[in-house]
Design brief:
The protein has 136 residues and is an alpha+beta fold. The protein has a single domain, classed as predicted glycosyltransferase like domains (Thrombin, subunit H). The protein has helices at 93-106, 110-123, and strands at 13-23, 28-37, 40-44, 54-62, 67-80, 83-90. It is globular and about 35 Å long. It starts with 12 loop residues before the first strand and ends in a 13-residue tail after the last helix.
């Protein structure tokens, strides 16, 4: 068997995070994120989601001090017997900062994550913020 070439734009970081995913039909699916990056996550869940389906995502981050939520939207990009991959597409600046902090705390290579974030900021066209991207 030939191995797959990893074509991800951003490195994945292992994580243990409770996630709620709401489909455009209103159906709520709960699962557990096992890895995350600046533009996606893999959600372990027993429920299958339709490939290409737009979703709203709420990740709950708990630490010793308090809980915080990271909200965003995305598209189901892959489905397998372990769960679903979701490509993140709309994050507010506040939620992007929360996501960066979360990844920074769990990343094996925090310097690489910071470089990826800089590359993402530079690649944004002038005057376009995440809030101006297409929403659900």
């Amino acid at each position: 068997m030939v191995g797959r070439v990893d074509q991800r734009k951003y490195a994945r970081s292992p994580i243990s995070l409770d996630v709620q995913v709401r489909l455009c039909t209103g159906v709520l699916v709960e699962g557990h994120a096992c890895n995350i990056s600046l533009n996606g996550l893999f959600l372990e869940t027993e429920r299958s989601l339709p490939l290409g389906c737009r979703v709203k995502i709420k990740m709950t981050v708990s630490n010793s001090a308090d809980k915080t939520d990271v909200a965003c939207t995305g598209v189901v990009s892959r489905v397998d017997n372990k769960g679903v991959a979701i490509a993140l597409d709309v994050l507010s600046d506040t939620n992007m900062a929360k996501l960066c902090q979360l990844i920074r705390e769990t990343a094996a290579d925090a310097v690489r994550m910071e470089d990826e974030r800089e590359r993402q900021i530079i690649s944004q066209p002038p005057g376009v913020s995440p809030e101006n991207k297409m929403r659900m």
